Amino acid sequence: MALVIENISKKIQDKQVLENVSFELNQGEIVGLVGRNGAGKTTLFGTIAGELLPDFGHIGLDDLDYNKTTRLHDQLCYIDMPENWLRYYSPKKIKTILKVAYKNFDESWYDAEIKRFGLNNIKRIRTYSKGMRALFAIIVSFASRAQYVLLDEPLDGLDVLIRDQVKQLIVNQVIQHNTTILIASHNLIELDTLVDRILLLKNQTIDRTFAIEDNKNIKKYQLAFTGEELPRFLRDSGTIIAQTGHIVTIVFNDFSENLGIKLAGPEFKFVEELQISSEDVFRASFAEEAFSWQQELEVDA
Amino acid sequence: MRQALKLYTTIRKNQFMMAAVIGMILIVLSVGSVMLIPGMPNQDIADALGPELIVVWLIIAVIVFLNDQSRRLDTWLYTQNISRGQLFLTRVILLVVLPIMAANVVDLGLTAALQPHTLIEALNIDSTVSANVFFMSSLFVIIATIIGPNWLKAAGTIFTLGLVVLAGPTVALFFKNISSVTSPFEGFIQPVVTMLAALFIFAVGHYLAQNISDDTVDEAVRVHYLKWPIVIFVFVVTLMKTMSSSGRNSIDGFLLGLVLPIILAVVTFIFVFKPTFKVTWDK
């Protein structure tokens, strides 16, 4: 069983937001969705969940058209953040609604988690802090016992202690219920600790799917150059993450043997390969934009 | 469909209970005045209670309907195991048909119990009022379906219902002509035709509701291919109204009659298409 997203395209107010987006979510997977601000992550979530109608494309679940087969809709849960209907109701009232909406709604688990996190059962959600609202949305999503859960910035606004508990909640949900979770986030460091693979949304489509261990071509180096100026080939073939004097941290999107030979040359006093993270892959994927910004900054300076 | 009705009723349980309590208060006041102050003018249940209940309940229904959008409940309901068409029908049943039916049942029941001699009169009044209210509700529902922002829904409804009121004498003449041909059914022909017209409008609304995406919620006209027809509709109906006034035979009168339609059409165009004008002195 898999949720199959096929060639989804969507225009909003005559602007192409998604174009031929295709990917699959398999059972029991945690998948990250990353992209720059305004890349279309929330639009993609809204389109998968059924809030928005795609202009083109198909979403399939169990070999059926998900959008047209409404009985499948309690197999997917998405609560859009931060504005949503939950704000106007108390957890108690929300429970009565969700019991009708989701046939597998886990009432006892919902009550237990509300109690565990000390959420007020009678107060309306809008009186909660930003972090508590985000936490409540996660509890609702998991209590639905939907097979597929879409979380938009789930760790946003949570303090470190609650964040750890929520991450544990996410992992438990997958282990105990084999739920598939798609997480959109800008917090790539947190994603690295949670997800099996990451989808990168760029130029209105899924530009790349990666798992850190699979990206042999992306490499990160810290190096010290000898001359007065940074060697030209570094800027042309990599993204500079940090530079302090002659010491540079750089990510190469497509590392080749040729580059390795150049780095071993006399232009460098010191070269060390560092461990790559999703954040580095993200930077490498947007190397062109990052380079043009760097140039602008240098001109301004 | 059962799931849609069950889910919507659960969400709006408090509002339905409030409507029931307000209805009960109105019933008690109406029946109380009949029993305690006999002979008071305008106190026939047949004349007052049914229409009053319908109006009060429909006002609550309109607030609930608009509230669904402003609270983003619509957005979530689109993701549920009910289709957009089922959601539309659920709202029509619970927020339009149910209040009208309930008001009629209460009105006719109380009339039969307390003033049985006015039962036929009550039946006539209720059927006409119900048909007219059902028709007006269909106009509101289709306008609310097509138009995005809540304040524009209200403006569009006021404009359209204003037109319906202005067209009232012409419509009355039309029904009078029909009734002269079908005199035995005089009392029923108008409600039946009105109901059929309303059902047709609801059917169009149902079709449109199935194709409306949540990303158009802030757009004046949510259905792309209806943008120009709506601008043209505003121009044509306003023109028909202004040109039907006296003094439009002269050129001056004709030109004067064009002013309001052009202004309203331009305003509608701006809201619908949101054109951007670049004002700059740069070369």
From TrEMBL, chain B:
Keywords: Membrane, Transmembrane, Transmembrane helix. The keyword Transmembrane helix applies. The chain crosses the membrane at residues 16-37, 49-67, 88-109, 129-147, 154-175, 187-209, 221-241, 253-273. It comes from the Bacteria. The keyword Membrane applies. This is Permease.
